[in-house]
Amino acid sequence: MKIVSYNVNGIKARLPRLIEYLAEEAPDVVCLQELKSSDETFPEKDVRDAGYGAVWHGQKGFNGVAILARGEDPVERRRGLDGEDDDVHSRYLEADVGGLTVASIYLPNGNPVPGPKFDYKLRWFERLAARARTLLAEERPVVLAGDYNVIANDDDVYSVRAMDSDALMQPESRQAYRRLLAQGWTDSLRTRFPGGGVWTFWDYQAGAWQRDAGFRIDHLLLSPQAADRFVDAGVDKQFRGREKASDHAPTWVRLR
DNA sequence: ATGCCTGTCACAGACAGA
């Protein structure tokens, strides 16, 4: 089965690309981020007409995550993370689908550094790690898919120098990601491409796509029980080059 | 050092993104 993480950067503006993606690639599970849509305006009918059941956790204007499943209704397990009662950002959604547990994750960007947004990013990371630990203890196949807003290694970015002072590359961000992996998660893209040089995001600005000036921030982490079923991983890069594309490309893992 | 580009909301330009 093909499981996808896709930051759509506005599901309303991206709906033609998303429907096209579902039709062409027929993924089994799709985790969406940055819906920029309230719960009420989620295009449920369009998604259903494309053959997908869905659960979503929206927010007007920004954030927002969803989980889509082909020919199946995902069974929601959780929305949001514990640990910060006044946090209203829609950034975490978890569901059971196709015999797996899948989470759609939209980690805070964290810029500028230093500042309250960066502090929020690091706190959110710890709250995610706490949830991840609980999921690992269930000893089931789990996929944590999303936009982590972390460039984990120097070979995950076109230019270390260009991104050096960015929140995505700070040592604290990388350490938080490594601590999460160290619980026992497998970074599926890294497993498939251990030498790096694979991007999932290209900025809209400064001709980044044309220059192939990208980086890898969309990750699919596998529990040991999911990693045992690993077949392949990759990026559907061609969708970044189309009309009215998201600045992220769909990123996927295939499991037996 | 700054803006580059795009989407949203709302109807001009600020905010958010990364």
Automatic annotation (TrEMBL):
Recorded hits in SUPFAM superfamilies, A to Z, give:
DNase I-like (SSF56219)
Q: Which CDD domains match?
A: ExoIII-like_AP-endo
**Necessary cofactors:** Mg(2+)
Q: Which InterPro entries match?
A: AP_endonuc_1, AP_endonuclease_F1_BS, Endo/exonu/phosph_ase_sf, Endo/exonuclease/phosphatase, ExoIII-like
Q: Which Gene3D superfamilies match?
A: Endonuclease/exonuclease/phosphatase
Matching PROSITE patterns: AP_NUCLEASE_F1_1, AP_NUCLEASE_F1_4
UniProt keywords (A-Z) are: Hydrolase, Magnesium, Metal-binding
Instruction: Please indicate if the UniProt record lists Hydrolase as a keyword.
Output: yes
What Enzyme Commission number(s) apply to this enzyme? 3.1.11.2
Domain of life, per lineage: Bacteria
What enzyme class is recorded for this protein? hydrolase
Residues forming the Endonuclease/exonuclease/phosphatase domain are 4-248
- Molecular function terms in GO for this entry? double-stranded DNA 3'-5' DNA exonuclease activity
Entry's family note: Belongs to the DNA repair enzymes AP/ExoA family.
Q: What is this protein called?
A: Exodeoxyribonuclease-3
What is the organism field in this record? Sphingomonas japonica
